[in-house]
Structure formats: C-alpha cells, structure tokens
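Posting this for the archive.
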Amino acid sequence: MSDRKPAGEFLDAAIELLRQVRDEEAGSIEAAGTLLADTVQNGGRLFAFGAGHSSLPAQDVVYRAGGLALMNLLTVPGVVGVDVMPATLGSALERVDGLASAVLDSSPLRAGDTLVIISLSGRNALPVEMAVHARALGVRVIGVTSVAYASETSSRHSSGTFLKDHCDIVLDSRIAVGDAELTLDTVPAPFAPASTVVTSALMQATLATAAATLADRGVEPPLLRSGNVDGGHDWNRRVLEQYADRIFYRR
C-alpha cells in the first residue's frame, strides 16, 4: 500500500461534509424539525421512506432509542433495503411509473401527516412520484437528497423533474454525484461512499430539532428510550400506548 491513509482520508471527507451541512443547511434543518414538531403537536403522523441504501437512514429513525416514537417506516415492497433477490431488482423498481401512487393509496398516510423522502439522486420515478402524490393527498414532504444531481444528471421521471422540485422543505446532503469520496491510481473506480453517514446525521439533527422544539412549547416529546437501560421497557410501553393510534410498526 502507498503512504496514503485511505481510512483517515475518508473520515476527513466525511467530517468536512458534516461541517458543510451543519453550516449551510442549518436553516433547512430548523425548518424541517419545526415541521415535524408541528405535525406531532397537531395530531399528525410521521413517516420516512428511502429506497435501496437510502432506506438505511429512514430505518435508523424508526423505533429508535432516543428517537421520536411517532416516526413510521413507509415501505414499498422490493425496494426497502437490499434483501430482495436479486438485489438489482430494487434498482429497477425505483424506475417503475405508478408504483409510488399505488403504495400511497393503500398506506395509512392522510392529510396533515408529514413524509420524509430520502433519495440521494432524487432522479428516479419512485421518489419523484411519491412526493407529487403525497402532496396531492395533503401530506407535507421533506426531501433529503443531493441537489447536485439535478444539475449534473437527467431525471428518470416523465416530468423531467427531481425530488427536490416537489418538496415543502429540502435538506441537501451535499454529496457529489457518484457518491464516492476517494480515488487511487491503483483502483479503477472511485470508492468510499459517505452518503449514509451524512444523511443519517441530517435525519438525527432534524429529529433532535423537533424534540427540542416540542419541549420549548411545553409539549413532552414522544421519545423512546433504550430497552437496555433499567426502566427503558416501562418507559417505552407508556409512550407506545399513549400514541398507539399514530404508530404503525406495532401492527
């Protein structure tokens, strides 16, 4: 191996991206967290969706110790995660017109809810159609995406638009097109993606803002505790029962 230290270079790149979103997305994070707090306070429900690896930050905020109990995962069969076989099928399904509308029409989402849609490129039919149809249903939409894709790639949706064009609030992950932070002369392709690190941080920053905003308003945030600390299960049982009509991952 050369004298280069790819582990350190990747961590430095990830840290720099986190600094960028901290400094440049602060207003959007505040707005997104406030929208989540408004939704909770007004009796709405929270949902998160991501396809493929973009599903990882969505799953990370559902039934999560230290997270909001009201965050539900919106699932689309075959695209949430990489457990579908073959894994390439998930990528193909993201390009299918009509799939998002069919899923939303059979989901519990309703007017007054908020849906977080995570899509790194924001160019495929599924996230674009999901945002369009959700807003038509009266659902507020937060998009978490890399805005760079809209200027450097073409849309795969019939409208020619991207996820960012159909959101109430957009959180820009600042990830470069291709999602690979490192190159080496001896490696034929760029490598070391950072989108999961940055997108997960954006999600947690947004939920932290929502929890603090609720507390500032005198509303106890519906937070879950770790089941691995004393009293955690009892705490969670109380919260889950109190908000049972707005939680769908127990059904």
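The mean pLDDT is 95. DSSP finds nine helices and five strands in the chain.
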